[in-house]
Structures are given as structure tokens and as C-alpha cells.
């Protein structure tokens, strides 16, 4: 019914998508225009492309494959600490890369806990460095995200449908076929595309865990082109390549993710009648424990090494923490301003290009965006004066793909379910947004805002070129502390950062669910 | 007078023609075989489907380009007539003002409408805590406060039991008698038509036929209807 | 009336502040951080210059140069501080820098004659290890041992590039073979110094590429003598960090004053325990206690800026080839 009247226009959403596209392609164009003729893409770049693709495909596939049983276990089990575990699942994802690498190595490294354990039995230490190490690290980062996205898919199946399935006597397997597989078909392609895009632009993780220049990704090649060769043309070309790959992945995901939603129920509390057999309990328990151990051990390592450094953190670290909170607040607001209209426009069937524009934020190299913005802004304004808005904007655009994955399915079901009723009541435009869309999407808005705030808190973003000397963010201070040999204080600051990100996530996510059942 | 002038409604490979008039204050049952296009007709009237040809007039005014919410029409759907996150009173209040900024008089009107449908004092509840019949009553209370000239029912009571459904239809009939509004109601069940409708529009063979007296039509059904009634 | 006086006083102080000329110095990020030399340098220079010194951090040395290239002649920077001899040739090629007028009695192991850039500190690259473990005496011994090392990527890190130059300066055409032998000792390659050093401290490797001055930090700041730097008998490659004045500066005299201040006793005394490098000019009071414990390489290696620029790309290819096997 694409020709039908709708309770709300798609124009704002299209406008928001254009802003995002302008930021990404505009900055790329700025870099291209500024470039002097350099050398084109060489065999090393193609090798980087190949490695990037292989690791991104493996990482995305494995993250999602593992996330499915974990999400299902979390969806149908209720246990003490479940909410906390789900909140903690967000943590790896929002850690500054350097902190996460060190945390991972404390567990999986040559001198890590597992190797120490193996040594007790006279066994060789774990060989973590290599393609498998890259994939392990990327799964560590992205399994939680995939789990949350898929878990949300499960939660969006209304209680009524599970009730119906239970009434029909559907066992776990029948429930899978009736409800879960169709849901996965809609949710999984998007999750794959997002994680593929994240891994595509990985650099420090891939290099460090990959064990050397074998593990050169496109992003590292961009970095090299920019700072080693100062070959802006090549940097732009590589960044364009990254955009094309991500765009293609997004397009495939949008096309593949088909299927009707399950409609909306009457907000009854969810109760599951399937999966009560002992086998499925053991199965679910296994997955929850495995995921928890895999994700929480490195976090515990980070926390343990951070505690001693927490005492005596300098005032400048606390100031940086305040700055980070400011950046996170602003970028979360910006993200919602962009994402909500975009999600609505997608829900109205103006989808594909907007969804693709939304996901490009992940593929755009922060270095190229930063450089492009710098080239554009430098002639007209002082880059330092714009440090806060620029950082917030770029972080918002980077968080957009996640937000859209979270918001779009819900927006679709709200518009599909209540669009006509609202129109027959002449509830259009702002009243529809205020009275129907926003209240019905509260949980999703809270979740996406929490994710954006946490991401923005942990991201170094484009600070380098716009770094106002007076305006250091917490991740930057962590790097500075490490650069000044203060590893203990850095670990303390990293723990503070982790706590802040988690709190931001927790508060916003909970805020969205508060009284949501009422 | 509601006038459908040379209307052609297309939906994929399916098309429906309608050229008919309905007198104000009539109560029309729209009946016909499943898939004949009963809901399509109602949706086109309500503005959810655009006409490929023709026009719809109410009291001489062309409604074809009017947005659904601006038409003099109140409509109840098969399901999902209430917003689960809003209270009963808010759901009714939407019928007065879609952004729910209601003054005291309007609040009182909502209260009165709830009382009229037998839900006195339930304004603060959420739909999930009501029975199916009560939920239908909330929707009818909203129709009441909307005060539109035309009421379109797309089988909103299909899920209710026979007794409850009869009760709802009687309530609808009472409300219509009070307001003088015109009713068009999709129905599968000839007894519904007999119960409430004085006229019937038969939708069959890609055509919405001009209305006929209910009793006349049902007692001497044309072949298409006969096949459907069995 | 009283308020008026106070207001006038406030106005005049802000006015005085606004009238003071501003000198903008671009440098690398760790220089301006609270733990780097920046805060002390700013305070000391502002006491003598009657100006407002603005230190701007921009990534690391290479990012600094890239930024100057991006900004070109319209740059706000008057001085760039933090390039090294691997970057100076490219920096000069931009034509954006003017000659300096600094003279000093440098304590560098090499004679300094550069007309455009003046040095402010220097150090030797070296592998840092736990003092209780024996260290190899050269690259060949390291390659033959089962010692594990973490190094930095020359494409993204200054020390990483330094190591590339070190092996090239020591072994020339033999460098690819050295790298091939070292490949199985390299645990991994990191993006920057911090990752590598952090990994070493966590025990992921026996040795990490850093500076001979690194143990001084642990000794002086943490009273921890457990870290040592290995001395290699091929000699050690040097990093000389320099600053230069931009030709388009609108504060040319102030920039000259800053460069002169840079080699003065005040500035040079700040360097050792904030930047953890050797000062370019030995301060009157000598080096801080603890620096005398640092190892002294028998031989200093340093490619001239032109040699460095000439061998850079080939050396990178050799490195990539050897370590990508």
C-alpha cells in the first residue's frame, strides 16, 4: 500500500539521510579535491582488501552464529542477574580499542590466565596471534551487539504469539519454525551487515591480534596513505572502497531481510511455555555461561587492573570524564534527531537508500571524515572551537547504523499497526509522533540512545585533528596516560570510562523500559 | 447523500467498481463472498485506498482528495482499534482532539461517552485489563465523541461471541438513533444485517451493487448471493 | 562606584591578556598532556615572554607534519615542535619552514648543523626487558634466541619507523635477511608505542621496542629498577626531536625567542623527567639522578634526513615482505 496516505511524512527522514550522506561523501570529496596525484592502489592494497574481507566475513558470521543460541537462551530464561548480564553485554563494544586489547590479552594472551592455567598442566600457552585471534577479538566486541539485536527480535514477538504457539501445543522445535526462524530471517541479515561493516574498518585490533603486517586491513592502508605517504588521493580511494563494500553489504541485507512482522499485541507480559524440557534448559544454561565467561573474563581483567589506578586519579582525568559526558549527551541527542525520522521514513516504505545511508557511517573511515571536515572547516572557522560539535556529530553518525537496526523494525510495526487508526482519528504529523510513535517506541529509543551514549563516550572519534588542547575526552586521557608510561593510572581511567559508559547505557536503556508494560 | 460516482478501485490484479448512492441516516450492511472486496470498498470510502477512477461525494462535497482523518467518517477496524499504551479515557479523547489537549468540557464529554457505553469509572484503566466486549465499548465511546456523519465498521465485533456481538450491534443501533449518523458495516453474517441494517449493498463479481432493502434481498437473493449464503 | 572600579580592573586585566601576543606551537599530543613537558614549559616561557603560549597537540610527529601540510601557509602555527630526522626532509620539501637562529652547545652524539630545525631532545631506540633476564647482544643473537619481542608498525608509529631505520643503518643490504630471521621472534606488531609497551608490561613478550631512557621512568617515578634496556653491539639508532619556525608566522620574533628558550636551561631541565628523553643541551645541574644508571650504546647510528627519506620506502617493503611470510 505504498500509494496510501500515511500519518506522517517521510520528508524529514529523507532530509536526515541526506545530511548523513553529505557528511560522508562531502568529506570524502573534500579529501579527493585536496589530493595531489599520487600512486594508485597497489598489490599491497589488494592484499589488504582480501584480508579485510576474509576477517570481516568470518567475524560477522561467527558473532551472529554464536549470538543466536545466546539470545534465545536469554529470551526464554529468567534468572537472577539476567538484566545485569544483558547490560554488561554492552560493555566490550564500547571499550576504547587499546583497553579492550589489553583486557583480552590478559585472558587469552601468551601470559594470560588461560595460558597460565595450561602451564599448570605442562601445556603450551595459547597461540592467540593470527587470523583466529583477529576473529576472536572481533567476536568479543560484536557478539554482545549481535546478541542484543537478536534478543530484541525475540522480544518483539508479542506474548500473544507465544501463547498461541503454546496453545497449539508447539514444542521448542515447532516454536522455532513458527516464530523464531521467521524472526531470525528478518533480524539476522541486518545484524550481519552491521558487524561486517564494523569489522571492515577495524585496524588496531586486527593488526595486534593478527600478529603483524599479514593482518593489514584497508583502514591501516588508509592510515598509511595519510600519515606515512601523505597521499590523500589514495586514502580517499581506499575509503571509497570501504564505502562501496559496506554499501553493498547493506543493500544485500536490506533485500534479504524480508518477512512480515508479527503484529503487535496488547503489551501483555511475556511468558514462555516452550523450552521447559531438561535438554533445552541445559542447552540454554551452557550458552549463557559460555557467553558470560567469554565476555566477562576480559572485563574482569580490565576492572582488576583498573582498581589500583582509580585512587589518585588527577583532576584532569575527571575533567575529561565530564567532557566525555558532554560529548556523549550531545551526540546521543543528535543521533536521535537523525535516526528517528530516518527510521520512520524506512517504516513508510521509503527504505532502501535511507537504510544504506544509515549504515555507511560505520564504513566511513574516521580518519577520512576527520580530514575532510578539517579541509572544509579550516578556511572558515577555527577547528578547535568546533571540537565538541564535530566530535558529537561524527559519533552520532557512527552510532546511527546501530540505532537504525534497533528502531526500524519497531517503527515498521507501529506504523503498520496504528497508522490507519491514527489517520482515521486525524492524528497526523506531530500528534502522531508524540502520542503514538514515541510512546510505542520508548524501549527501542532508550536502547539505541544508551548504545549511542556509550559508544560516543568510548570513541576517540575524530578528536585528533580537532583536538582543542583544553578539551580532552576521557579516552584521549587514557591514551595520554599510557603514552606517559602511567599504565596504572591509565588502567584506572579506563575503568572509570567503562563504568561511565555502562552507566549511561544502563540509565537510558532502563529509562526506555520504565513502566513500559503499563 | 453519500454518492459513489463511477468509482474504480484497483489493488494489484483486483478491481472493484461502484456506482451507487446512499441516503443519509441509512444503515447499510455490506455483504458478499469472501474476497469480493467488501473491506476494499470500506477502505476506499475511508480514504486508505485511492480511487483509480471516479469520485466519492458526501452531501455534494468531493471527498476523494480529503485525508482520511479529515473525512466526516469514523471507522472501526477488525482489530487494533485501541492504543495499548494509552488509558481508556485517552483512547476516547483521541476522538475529540488527536493531540489530547482537552479542556474540562471535553473531558466531561469523554466521561459521559464512557458512561453511555457502560464503562463509567473505567477511564484510567489500560485496554489490556479490559475484556473484549469492554474494549469494543471503548472504541464505540470514541465513535460517539467523534460525532462524524458516517460510521464505517469493518467487522470490529467479529471476535466477540454471538450474544456479545448482538449486544454491540444493538448499542451501535442506539447510538446511531441518537446521532442520526449513516452506517456502513461489513458483515459475513446475514443475521447481523437483519438485526441492524435496513439496506444491503451486495459486493460480488467485481461490483458493488446499489443498495436494496435488507429483507427483500435476503429473502430473494440473486444468484451470486445465493451461492454465498448457501 | 566600588563595583565600577572592580569592573574596570577586570576589563583592564582581560584587555592586557588580550593584548599579549599569542604564540601558537603545534606539537605531538603527549607533549601537551598533563604528564608531558607542556604545562611546565608553558608556565616558564610565559613568565619571560610577556605572551600567551598556546600549545596545540596534534597526534604524533607524522600526524603533525600531515596537519601542517593540510593547513599550508594559512596555518595558525608559528612553531612546530616534535618532528624527527625521519620527517625533516619531507617537512623542508613543503617550503613552509624558515631557518632558525638558534645556537647552543649541544650534547648530541652527532654534530648538529641543520639550518631549519633545532633539536630539543634525543634518545636511543632500544629493546627494554626485565632486568633479571639476560638480553641478547645484537640483532643476530636476538634472532637466534627464542626471545619474544613486540614492535610497532612503521606505518603508524614513530618508534616502529625508527626500528626500520635502525636495522637498515646497521645492516644495509643485509636488512631483509635480519628481518626474515627476526620474524619468528616477533609476537606481534602494534599500532603505537602504548599498545606495545602495555603488552610488554603484561608479560606478553620478553622485550619491547622503546628507548634506552625508558628504565629511567620506572626508576625515578616508580622507584622500580626491574626494567633494563639491552645494548646491541651494532650500535643504536637515534631519534633526535626537533622544532622549526614557520615562514608564514606572524610572530616571527616571538618564535625565535621560543626556539632560543627551547635550548635554554629552564626548558632543557624540564625534558628528562617529563618527556623521558635526553635533553639536547645538558642542564647546568646535570641530568637527574637515575639517568646515570642508563646504558650507553657503544655506537650511535643516525641516517641523515636525505638518506632516511631515500631508504624509507624500500625498507618498508623489505619489512612487509619479511614479516608477512
TrEMBL record, chain A:
It is found in: Cell membrane. Residues 49-253, 321-508 form the ABC transmembrane type-1 domain. InterPro entries: MetI-like (IPR000515), MetI-like_sf (IPR035906). One of its GO terms (biological process) is transmembrane transport. One of its GO terms (cellular component) is plasma membrane. It is a multi-pass membrane protein. Keywords: Cell membrane, Membrane, Transmembrane, Transmembrane helix, Transport. It comes from the Bacteria. Its main location: membrane. The keyword Membrane applies. The chain crosses the membrane at residues 12-33, 53-74, 86-108, 128-151, 187-209, 236-258, 286-305, 325-349, 356-380, 386-408, 445-467, 487-508. This is Thiamine/thiamine pyrophosphate ABC transporter permease ThiP. It comes from Parasedimentitalea huanghaiensis.
From TrEMBL, chain B:
Keywords: ATP-binding, Cell inner membrane, Cell membrane, Membrane, Nucleotide-binding, Translocase, Transport. GO terms for molecular function: ATP binding; ATP hydrolysis activity. This is ATP-binding cassette domain-containing protein. It comes from Parasedimentitalea huanghaiensis. It comes from the Bacteria. PANTHER family: SPERMIDINE/PUTRESCINE IMPORT ATP-BINDING PROTEIN POTA, THIAMINE IMPORT ATP-BINDING PROTEIN THIQ. SUPFAM superfamilies: P-loop containing nucleoside triphosphate hydrolases. Residues 2-230 form the ABC transporter domain.
Automatic annotation (TrEMBL), chain C:
GO terms for cellular component: outer membrane-bounded periplasmic space. It is found in: Periplasm. Residues 1-18 form the signal peptide. One of its GO terms (biological process) is thiamine transport. It comes from the Bacteria. Its main location: periplasm. InterPro entries: SBP, ThiB, ThiB-like. This is Thiamine-binding periplasmic protein. Transmembrane segments: none annotated. Keywords: Periplasm, Signal, Transport. Pfam families: SBP_bac_1. PANTHER family: THIAMINE-BINDING PERIPLASMIC PROTEIN, THIAMINE-BINDING PERIPLASMIC PROTEIN-RELATED. Belongs to the bacterial solute-binding protein 1 family. One of its GO terms (molecular function) is thiamine binding.
